[in-house]
Amino acid sequence: MQGIRIGADEGIHGVAWRWSAVGLLCLLLASTGVQAGMGGIGNATVNQGDFATQLRFSVSDDDQSARLDGRFRNRLMLDYGISDDVALGFYIQGDNRGGDNQELDAFILDPRYELAQVATDGYYTGFRLRYTYKDGDKKPDNFHIRLIAGLPVDQWDFRINQILAYQVGEDSAGGLGVDTRLQASYRFHPDHRAGLESFSNFGFGSGSSFDEQAHTLGPIFAGKIAPGLSYEAGYRYGLSDAAADHTLRVFLAWLL
User: Of 18, 35, 94, 223, which is least surrounded by CB within 10 A?
Assistant: First the structure.
């Protein structure tokens, strides 16, 4: 997770793109009628000494699922580059299911390791180790490893996040959870890119059908708003019954 620096001499086109991005964010934040998928598809970039914070918001709509319909989730993320290869993240997550009060959902510890970088290798790789402590007696905790790889080609960026998860505690699911995330984006402006991404959560164990798994697909927009301030916004359409029908999400990151 990184904030993004912007040069001071942007010109009129830079200002126009900045306010276009702000308008998009305001529109999405105002659209509270449409899971609340908090996850993204990140790279593994680490810069020693960088301290960043990120706010994430997501809201979902699903007429067939009371658990997902009108669900609003949010996450506060703090991230610090310990070295040029290792960063440590600490997150606090909230959850508001339709009609209920906002509640504390989880604390998350998320160290990130960069193995290869574009400047020296032409591609990027790394991994993250995450432990999620769920608030509540009957909510299982979760440990996962996320393998990260990406390849920039001219103005294109292709990346994959492969997650393997394991639940611990009361009411935990058996077996290994598998979550595959793919993204292709195009930098159409020096400060902005647009693309398409897919999330395929195959669940825990084996033997589930496509509709029992959570598969989504949709567009993504990301870029810079101001010096040290970046955004990411997206919409995901549910391809399977277990996924929310519609998900809107907005991320805002500051490099402090």
Answer: 94
**What pLDDT was estimated at residue 46?**
95
Q: What is the pLDDT of residue 22?
A: 45
Distance from C-alpha of 152 to C-alpha of 22, rounded to nearest angstrom? 26
pTM: 0.82
**Residue 120: phi, psi to the nearest 5?**
-110, -25
Structure tokens at 183: 């993204």
Structure tokens at 78: 């703090």
- Quick one: which H or E segment has residue 25? helix 11-30
Amino acid, res. 35: Q
Q: Which two tokens stand for residue 248?
A: 């809107």
Give the residue among 123, 126, 124 at the shortest CA–CA distance from 112: 126
Q: Give 179's contacts (C-beta < 8 A, 6+ positions apart).
A: 39, 144, 162, 163, 165, 199, 200, 201, 202
76-100-65-27 Cα dihedral, nearest 10 degrees: -50
Say which residue the tokens 């580059």 belong to: 81
Strands 103-116 and 192-204: unpaired
Residues in the chain where the model's pLDDT stays below 50: 3-10, 12, 15-16, 18-19, 21-36
Per-residue model confidence (pLDDT) at position 27: 44
Give the CB-side neighbour count of residue 42, counting CA atoms within 13 A: 22
d(CA 59, CA 172): 25
Structure tokens at 176: 């290994």
Residue 57 has φ and ψ, to the nearest 5°, of -135, 140
Residue 158 confidence (pLDDT): 98
How far apart are the C-alpha atoms of 146 and 128, rounded to whole Å?
5
How many residues are present in the chain? 256
